[in-house]
Amino acid sequence: MNKVNGLRPDTILTHGGRDPQAFGGVVNVPVVRASTILYPDLQAYESSRVEKFSSLRYGRYGTQTTFALEEAVAALDGGFRATSFPSGLSAIANVLRALLRPGDHLLMVDTVYGPARKFCDEALARDGISTTYYDPAMGAELVNLITDRTRVVYCESPGSLTFEVQDIPAITSVCRPRGIAVVADNTWATPLFFQAFARGVDVSIHAATKYIVGHSDAMLGIAVTTEEYFERVRGYAAEHGVIAGPDDCWLGLRGLRTLGARLRQHQQSSEIVLDWLLQHPAVSRAYYPALAGHASHALWRRDFTGASGLFGLELVPARHDAIHGLINALKLFGIGSSWGGYESLILPSKPIRTASQDRTTGPLLRINIGLEDPDDLIADLEAGLSVFENQRRDLQRRMNHAQ
Q: Is residue 185 among the annotated active site residues?
């Protein structure tokens, strides 16, 4: 893996944001809960206001726990500084609001996370900010969609549900000379597997609820920025009171320390499970860029150093009740929103596409492979797919009989 700030990523995961001697030798940064911060004299108080975001001022701006997480993630990502938010969607929404004004134009990738699309179509539209969705396959040709009001290009690579990888270096190459900020959702790969700033991104967003927290017990978002955009993002967050609380930041730090070990197991288990799934007659296609047959595999190999545990799985055509039978038969896969935790999850999904083609023909599942033994997960999926196949055959027999 590439070195970041002179250290390799696994070392940053262990040491980033830590200062044991500042807390009497305690290894982990404590949870520091605070609203009021007291100063020895008025001069010190007034100095803290001048220093803005670089000192402990008031609980709304963060505490030592907040700063430790932000420092560690910024170092891992290779950015200037970070801002924490109460959730991943909060990070997305507040970054866009910080960078856009009424009358501005946003270019948004068509495979974006569903709630982010809704935010653009409703909240930003009410503010007089227009959004154009673009095909994730576009690279430098995105220049043809740029207008004199375009201020932000938003990427999500890989994209939600069908996991297309974008050519982010090509996109940044046409945006940077025009002063357009490139924002990228880097939740799937994390900074461990994709170095956004090395590829020209200006703001790297993480739904830290997922892999960074890693234990399904906290909501958290983080936006890492270049120096150019830090004060705009941090200032907007402080002005609107949307900095994450210290308890959630501490859970983010707790998860960050084991991120490397967990992600490698997520990837290894996903590859084992996918190898089995792709041989099953009920499976039509897998959407996972680390697979050689994925349409974006070449870009993934060029820009990424690993893959996580989330992928899409397309089944052969079937009625919805067969999907219900499959999912309800599973014992180890939970039925619930989110992903990136230690437990495996499964949900049916339906891509929303307005600027690119939805090429799925059969039902699509979103699967999160957790930290269970992959052979146990395969046995569970085998049982569920058996129910799926039996229901499909039963329906086909009834249809043939009716004819």
A: yes
Exposure string of 130-144, with b = 16+ CB inside 10 Å and e = fewer, is bbbbbbbbbbeebbe
Burial class (CB in 10 A: 0-12, 13-18, 19+), 395: middle
Indicate the pLDDT class of residue 39, thresholds 50, 70 and 90.
Answer: very high
List, in order, residues 6 or more apart from 94 with CB less than 8 Å away.
Answer: 85, 223, 233, 236, 237, 240, 242
Cα separation, 376 vs 89, in Å, equals 33
Question: Global pTM?
Answer: 0.94
3-state helix, strand, coil in the chain (%, to 5): 45, 15, 40
The DSSP 8-state label assigned to residue 257 in this structure reads: T
- Please identify which of the residues 104, 110, 167, 185 carries the catalytic annotation: 185
Look up residue 388 and give its two tokens: 């799926």
Of 176, 177, 179, 181, nearest to 205 by C-alpha is: 181
**pLDDT by residue (tens digit) across 291-330?**
998 999 999 999 999 999 999 999 999 988 899 999 999 9
Q: Which of 199, 210, 262, 285 is catalytic?
A: 210
For 79, the token pair is 């950015």
Alpha carbons 301 and 146: distance in angstroms, whole number:
28
Catalytic-residue membership of 210: yes
Q: Which among 113, 134, 154, 229 is annotated as catalytic? A: 113
Q: Are 268 and 369 in contact (CB under 8 A)?
A: no
CA 250/CA 70 separation, integer angstroms: 11
60 catalytically annotated: yes
- Does residue 10 sit in helix, strand or coil? helix
| H-helix or E-strand spanning residue 40 | none
**Secondary structure (3-state) at 31:** coil
* Among 361, 335, 336, residue whose Cα is nearest residue 350: 361
What crossing angle do the helices spanning 88-99 and 227-239 adopt, rounded to 10°?
A: 110
